[in-house]
Design brief:
10% of the residues lie in helices and 30% in strands. Strands 2, 3, 4, 11, 12 and 13 form a six-stranded antiparallel β-sheet that branches. The protein has a four-stranded antiparallel β-sheet with strand order 1-14-15-16.
Length: 368
């Protein structure tokens, strides 16, 4: 230790240095059914649901889909959609959209298949809070129920939500691991002395042969971090000296969604479909849905079978499947061919919202 450090003040041996920010291994008691838990987020063990919670698909049950008519748009609707699109592009002139001549409006059949699997997942971890005399629901009141036996209030179906619940009879009081039950910890900036060596005169009290104006010749300054006290209130127990530890159960409801649209339009980017809606002419809902059979588009049948099997394998091992829903939407798509100024152009009108996509537009650089 530097001799000059002796001038900075004495250290109170009763105030400990900061301990670990999290409880060390072996610090917490084991609770039956929750052995091996670690503290904090990220270490939460996942509890797969018991077999009784996981339904099994029935055998030989197929789902049939009705036939539908492909929607069409009129020339007026197509022109209005293009004008609205042009208004959003400041480099485009509205003149071509007003004066173009339609040659053909070609409706295209586009089906979007969607599978939704609504799941419930349960994890847990040790948590703690300052103990200030609040009730302690400990093991003396009974055994903690297993994770999947704890009752919860379910949200509206297909709604994502996270709910945190204190596990019954898992609480107990322990001395704070950060301050060893002192309620205060030694200031790490001044090492408990309450003062720090002056950085202007390096503790000499003089700078350039004059009394240091920063420390007034003392060679030391009051520690601004602890206000000269040499200690700070414990950041974990906030001075209460004890912590109430408990197991917190985290229940996560999530709607897992997958969409599929057959990629058959080389001139139209499929990602555009993500921001528009279609007509859901087929909706099938059950705890577990079954692959679609007999639909005119065989690719939709194949993807229905594949995604249903994937979701069952992916989610039933770690989560409880509460409900599934599969839909087929007919997403409007019209390829509009037109001529303007003696040249041929085209654009697409898509979605119920009549959005427009065009790779090329006449007079793109002219201003209104």
């Amino acid at each position: 230790m530097d001799e000059k450090d002796d001038d900075l003040g004495a250290i109170d041996p009763n105030i400990p240095e900061e301990g670990p920010s999290a409880p060390p291994p072996g610090w917490l008691d084991d609770i039956h059914g929750y052995q091996g838990l670690k503290g904090g987020d990220g270490d939460n063990p996942l509890y797969p649901p018991p077999p009784a919670y996981n339904p099994q698909p029935e055998q030989d049950r197929n789902t049939h889909v009705p036939n539908v008519r492909v929607p069409t748009v009129s020339e007026d609707v197509a022109r209005e959609a293009l004008l609205k699109f042009v208004e959003s592009k400041w480099t485009y002139s509205s003149k071509p959209a007003r004066n173009l001549t339609f040659k053909e409006l070609k409706p295209i059949t586009v089906y979007r298949y969607r599978l939704e699997t609504y799941t419930e997942t349960r994890t847990s971890a040790w948590q703690y809070e300052s103990y200030n005399g609040q009730p302690v629901d400990g093991p003396q009141f009974g055994m903690s129920p297993p994770p999947w036996d704890i009752p919860v209030s379910m949200p509206q179906r297909y709604t994502d939500m996270v709910q945190k619940i204190r596990v019954p009879h898992s609480s107990f009081i322990k001395m704070c691991h950060k301050c060893n039950g002192c309620g205060r910890t030694r200031c790490v900036h001044c090492h408990g002395r309450g003062q720090k060596r002056c950085t202007f005169c390096h503790g000499n009290g003089r700078s350039r042969n004059k009394r240091c104006t920063s420390c007034h010749g003392r060679g030391r300054r009051r520690c601004i971090s602890c206000h000269g006290q040499g200690y700070k209130t414990c950041t974990v127990c906030h001075g209460s000296q004890n912590l109430l530890h408990f197991i917190e159960l985290t229940v996560t409801w999530k709607n897992n969604i997958e969409d599929f649209i057959p990629d058959r339009q080389p001139d139209f980017p499929d990602k555009k479909f993500e921001k528009v809606t279609g007509d859901p002419f087929f909706i099938d809902e059950n705890v577990l849905v079954y692959p679609i059979q007999g639909f005119p588009d065989q690719e939709i049948c194949d993807v229905s079978s594949r995604l249903i099997n994937e979701h069952l394998n992916r989610y039933s091992a770690t989560s409880r499947i509460l409900q599934q829903r599969q839909t087929i939407e007919l997403v409007p798509l019209t390829h509009a061919h037109y001529s303007y100024g003696g040249k041929d152009f085209s654009f697409f009108v898509y979605g119920i919202e009549n959005k427009v996509f065009t790779a090329k537009y006449p007079s793109a650089c002219s201003i209104l």
